[in-house]
Design a protein that fits this description.
Blueprint lengths: L16 H13 L5 H9 L20 E4 L2 E3 L2 H12 L6 E5 L5 H7 L4 E6 L2 H12 L6 E5 L12 E6 L8 H5 L1 E12 L3 E8 L4 E9 L10
Parallel strand pairs: 3-4, 3-6, 4-5, 6-7
Antiparallel strand pairs: 1-2, 7-8, 8-9
The structure holds S-adenosyl-L-homocysteine (SAH).
Length: 222
C-alpha cells in the first residue's frame, strides 16, 4: 500500500516534480524498496526546506547546511532510516528527535498516523514551522525541548527516530517505546553506525546497519 496521508496543496511542488521523480529513481537504484517511502519522498518538496540559494541542489544526494551548524540529511539516509523504521508495517505514533528544517518530519507525516518532532534550537524550530506551513500536515506536532527526555506526556510511541547521533542509548526514549515498537538512531561519535532497537515483551533487540555521519545529539535547549 502506498497511499499518502497528505496530497500536496494544489500547485505546491509541481515544477519540481520531475526532479523529485529522478531522485526517487536514484533511491530505487541505490536499494530503497519500500514503495510507501519512495512515494513519500516523491511527494515532499525538499527544495522548500533549504535556503533559496541551495534550492537547485535540494534533490542531489547530499546533506546541506540549514543554519545553526546543522544539516538536512541526504535523501538516501532519510529514505534508508524511514524504510528500516517501517520494516513494511505501519509507523503508528512516531517521535522524531531533531526537527532541524522539518524535512524528515514531513516525510514521516506522509506515512504515519501521528508525528511528534522535538528540536532543541528555538530559531531552527521557527524555521521548520515556516517551511512546513504550506504543506498543511495536520498530523504533525512540533515541540521546543530536549529530545534526550523524549515526550513522556505523549508516550508510548510505536516508532522513534533520532536525527542526531547519540553516544549512548537515551534511557528515556527506550522507556517511551511501546512493546513491539522500533527505534532507529545514528550511534557513536567520530565513527557512527545506524542502530535499530526493537522492544520485545522481555527486553530490547539491537541490530547494526550502515555507517553514517550525523551532527551530535546535544543536551538542553537553546
Ligand atoms: N531531521 C532533520 C535533521 C536535522 S540535523 C532534517 O530533516 O532537517 C539534527 C537536529 O537535531 C539539529 O537541528 C539539532 O539541533 C537537533 N538536536 C540535537 N540534539 C538534540 C536534542 N537533545 N533534542 C532535540 N534536538 C536535538
Amino acid at each position: 500500500m502506498n497511499r499518502l496521508k497528505h496530497p500536496l496543496p494544489q500547485g505546491i511542488g509541481m515544477t519540481s516534480q520531475r526532479t523529485r521523480a529522478r531522485m526517487v529513481e536514484r533511491l530505487r537504484k541505490d536499494g530503497i524498496k519500500d514503495e510507501s517511502v519512495l512515494a513519500a519522498m516523491g511527494a515532499v518538496p525538499r527544495h522548500l526546506f533549504v535556503e533559496e540559494a541551495l534550492a537547485s541542489r535540494a534533490y542531489d544526494d547530499d546533506a546541506l547546511p540549514i543554519g545553526y551548524s546543522q544539516t538536512i540529511s541526504q535523501p538516501y539516509v532519510v529514505a534508508r532510516m524511514t524504510e528500516a523504521l517501517r520494516a513494511g508495517r505501519e509507523l503508528g505514533k512516531v517521535l522524531e528527535i531533531g526537527t532541524g528544517c522539518g524535512y524528515q518530519a514531513a516525510v514521516l507525516a506522509q506515512l504515519a498516523a501521528e508525528v511528534y518532532s522535538i528540536e532543541r534550537i528555538a530559531p531552527l524550530l521557527a524555521k521548520a514551522r515556516a517551511n512546513l506551513r504550506g504543506l498543511r500536515l495536520n498530523n504533525l506536532r512540533l515541540k521546543h525541548a530536549d529530545g534526550n527526555l523524549g515526550l513522556p506526556e505523549v508516550a508510548p510511541f510505536d516508532s522513534i527516530i533520532l536525527s542526531a547521533a547519540a553516544r549512548q542509548l537515551p534511557q528515556a526514549l527506550l522507556q517511551q517505546l511501546s512493546p513491539g515498537g522500533r527505534m532507529i538512531l545514528p550511534f557513536g561519535t567520530s565513527e557512527q553506525v545506524l542502530r535499530l532497537v526493537e522492544r520485545t515483551r522481555s527486553g530490547y533487540n539491537e541490530t547494526t546497519l550502515d555507517a553514517v555521519r550525523f551532527v551530535p545529539m546535544l543536551m538542553g535547549v537553546e
